[in-house]
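FORM 7B - TANDEM STRUCTURE REPORT

SECTION 1: FIRST PROTEIN
SEQUENCE AND TOKENS:
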Amino acid sequence: MTDTIRLTAAQALVKYIAAQMNEDGDPFIAGCWAIFGHGNVAGLGEALYAAREDLPTYRGHNEQTMAHCAIAYAKQLRRKRTMAVTSSIGPGATNMVTAAALAHVNRLPVLLLPGDVFANRGPDPVLQQIENPADGTAGVNDTFKTVSRYFDRITRPEHLLTALPRAFRTMTDPAECGPVTLSLCQDVQAEAYDYPVSFFEPKTWRPRRIRPDEVELAAMADLVKSAKRPVIVAGGGVHYSGATEALRSFAEAHNVPVTETQAGKSALPWDHPLNLGPIGVTGGEPANTVCAEADLVLGVGTRFQDFTTGSWGLFANPERRIACLNVAAYDAAKHNAAPLVADARVGLEELGAALGGHRAPAGVDGLKSDWFGKVDPLTDAPADSNQLPTDMQVVGAVQRQANVNTVAMCAAGTMPGELHKLWKAGKPGSYHMEYGFSCMGYEIPGAMGIKMAEPERDVICFTGDGTYMMANSEMATAAMMGIDFTVVVTDNRGFGCINRLQMGTGGAEFNCLLDHAIGGENSKIDFAAHAAAMGATSVKVGSIAELEEALAKRHEIKGPYVVVIDTDPYPSTEHGGTWWEVGVPEVSGRDEVRAARAKYEANKATQRAD
């Protein structure tokens, strides 16, 4: 007879989660973020309280940003660990949908546990319940289905026996990794069931390292050997696989230059001779020049996002082939690429062995020195301290105050482009950019998640005033918990990045900067005072020199430290970059739009679908 233990569904869920380990012997779920409400306070809340010594519960201020923190934690730890996030039903649940999409796009694990309505339907409709007259099974949590790698609605306690192993398989599978949503009917959370004791035995989840298929491997080796100008595009999968040293060894052994996506940046040190730096729309001239001439573009752990490929207009060589080493077959075969479905580390090692002593003939001498000769002066402090600083100068100031242990992080707006081009990332993990979903509001909770993941790191978050206004509430959480990180707020009075895009597509300045919005002239936001009101240490500085002085003091500060500086919304790094497809109106009464449309059509003609 099977030994059983009688538990509520919520208790069983928590007990199972606490027993799931990673290959390093650490709990895969490091803790649970929770905002309680009807739908999770009685069932899951009671279960989490009883398990608080083994599975800590953290209280946040917004469901979306709590999930951002959990996702950043997972990203910084290369998907080896993550957190759970629980909410009430209704708006508490749907607040997490944006974060689920972010995790899905970036292939990052997070366990989302939204409350749901009553499975027994006795009190229907309950507060915050959506009713669909045509579908009695529909609810707001169905919105998670599109943005979850695995979704399940728990309408009976015994459903956990199948749902939970599926959830952890998904979160720990390199190819299927992403957000999991278990929608928890609130009455079921409190219902008891006799669960097998064996269900709760500790289990280790070891991500499999998929080895290459022999035929694909041989074909890939032939492609590399026949290429005269090959180039590697290193993506986030290089980090998640722990393949940074394998990438270095491969590049050096076979003389293949490396370019880096936003997610792949820091795969090689910035000063490695074969690291040509950032690629694509936010890329630099060394990488984009070589990619435009390459006859073989070998993606490693990248999904070839449009910012990487210049909307598929960057790889201009008529003879070029696309190849992709990726653990996910879906990504490996994009755009008619020659696939090598494999773990990045194992794939590079075995591809290198198949190449033997082969070395690519092309060199990259001079490209990097020319590039840094152009852009390094942009990051210098301005000669005229009365001028508004540029974002490039802010990047330079932070870079000069950074150390080997610094993690530069960001997500959306102006700074991702400037950081991708200008930030000199050293060791792996020193650059943390969420640019798959480019989600405004990730920055502050993301910085908190990074610091929780690696407490020894010096975390510096770049955020604009627009993003700060979207999601700043976890600043109070960080102050409450005493989590140290630095936030540099660049105040350019609005959405400066999109204002430049608006102008670049021929549009008039309209509704992006505050000065061009109805009533914007009345906006006088004191970001330093606001951050201080939430418990942060904060300061407003008036120059790049003062910014550096303020940053030098960050190690003396306990809790979050916010430094605010006004910046010029117009300048950006003109060097580098490539076309990005943004639809421009075919018909307009404005000459600027018609000119932009002509330029758009010329660039569109260079786009390749093959």
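SECTION 2: SECOND PROTEIN
SEQUENCE AND TOKENS:
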Amino acid sequence: MNPTRLLALLPALLTAACGPSAEPPEPAAPPAAADIPAPTYSAEQFYQTTSYGMASSSGHAFSPDGTALLVSSDATGVFNAYELPVGGGEPRMLTNSDDNAIFALSWFPQDRRVLYTYDSGGNELNHVVVREEDGSSRDLTPGENLKAGFLGWSADGAYFYLETTERDQRNFDVYRYSAADYSRELVFENPGMQVADVSADGRWLALDRPRTSADSDVYVVDLASDDREPQLVTAHQGNVEHAAWEFSPDGRYLVYATNEFGEFNHAWRYELTSGEKTPLLQAEWDVMYVTHSPGGRYRVSAINEDARTALSLTDVTTGDAVELPPLPDGDLLNVRFAADERQLALIVNGENSPSNVHVVDLAGGTSRQLTDALSPAIDPTHLVAGSVVRYPSFDGLEVPALLYRPHGASADNKVPALVLVHGGPGGQSRLGYNAMRQHLLNHGYALLAANNRGSSGYGKTFYHLDDRRHGEEDLKDIVWGRKYLESLDWVDAERIGVIGGSYGGFMVAAALAFHPEAFDVGINIFGVTNWVRTLESIPPWWEAFKESLYDEMGDPATDAERHRRISPLFHAGNIVRPLLVVQGANDPRVLQVESDELVAAVQKNEVPVEYLVFPDEGHGFAKRTNRIAASDAYVKFLDTYLKAAAGTMD
């Protein structure tokens, strides 16, 4: 819940020569998929796969007449908003940006106007824009150095709610906008909390207040009252994490998450008038979210089940589970209902199938796939599915991970490997299609996507094992990932590298600096290298959870010495293995100066170091051309340095 915790088998034709009287040979057993080589594809072919995302869960994904879906897609190479016919057919482009990525938010509930959001070159200063029916657009949140977001609609469609930092860069105030003329009213001046949801009747506002990395509260505000003072919902003792999810469609309840009653997040309900709290859903894994259809008939819930999403649909009127029609294997994501609740749309993301949009007729029990995202140049049977594994770390702790074995890898054909580190620090590597992973696998590199201690999804104890210990025990989990890879008879134990982005990029640089012989190469993708600077220069809109961030990572005012001790930049003289650094020039989280300084420091060691800066990206890749260039750079670097490496663990 803490925002710091927010990549046809080729048949073998065998012939047997037999004499006239020979018995026919026994048919050879088909080799395992991993033992059959696959053709090599380019990064461009992998990234010609189209990405799709649904309109906001707080908005309307279905058009008012139910005939079209509002989606985001990078079909042109840059994300734009599209109208996707529910009956099938080609999507229609609604925005035409070739520079800044645009993401669809919502249809207007009574016409075909659209809300969307964009930032400038990845600077994360989002604006909210309305696209009129004639194709013209209007920025609803004009100004410099502000960040805005969409919160939702009133039940009657007369108003919508936006949050913006225009008054104070540190805090998101809430405005109610008229759908008719875009006039607005300030309904809540935020004292320093995170805005979670507005009820459909416009009366209630839900807020989160992170206090520490392990303790947070939920508040509600009665917008009909004069003082509009936040009221505490989650009074408790000790460290308990809470997060507001959504108000019920009838405005009676707030649904929220809590880990007060065990290791994992449970869903609870808070009755707004009486204050009564009751359990709604629990599992042996984290409940990821609970949401409802517009009229409240259906409830959707998702469980984070060992790096997979287990989704359930319940008919609230009967309490019965609703069976969806057959869908492809994969995680079911982005569930959106039509206003009449007769249809729903969702995205299916599988290991060998990227995210595709499907629409389900709930009354008829049928489904239709509306998109075909995978590049036509790629045979899906040449993709690689991951498996969930666990390996022991230095202290015996079992580390969950995803293992990917390239086609053709065997004891007789050992392949080089990479330990892949996720971002966060409290993120999670999950199963599902990822073009970067598949490109690396296709070029013969095995992957171990480690969920080191501190990762989410495995209980609160595991999640907090790295608090104020970052770059120490969690880094050893990554180093011990190499030991695990060395134990596999199809991995070349002398050629193992490490790769990661964001916090994972920090772990790459830290591994090379503090365990200089552990890995043979490293790829640091926009990773932190100087925690002193990073924690002193966090974006102002992180103010609401700065206290929680400092509790987890340490306050730069008092912990600067430890931050310096774990920062790879100050220990770059130890780096002796080849390093590739990738950076976005507009990154507001990891400033370019961090990567500049690391590269300069490593160059002094006379160690091979390559540096790739994207002038039009921020903390991640919004443009296809840049994703292709980066992925090509990873493979070229690995082909040059890892296939020639021979390292040993320290």
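SECTION 3: OBSERVATIONS ON SECOND PROTEIN
The longest strand covers residues 491-501.
The CA atoms of residues 529 and 594 lie 6 Å apart.

SECTION 4: SIGNATURE
Preparer initials: ____
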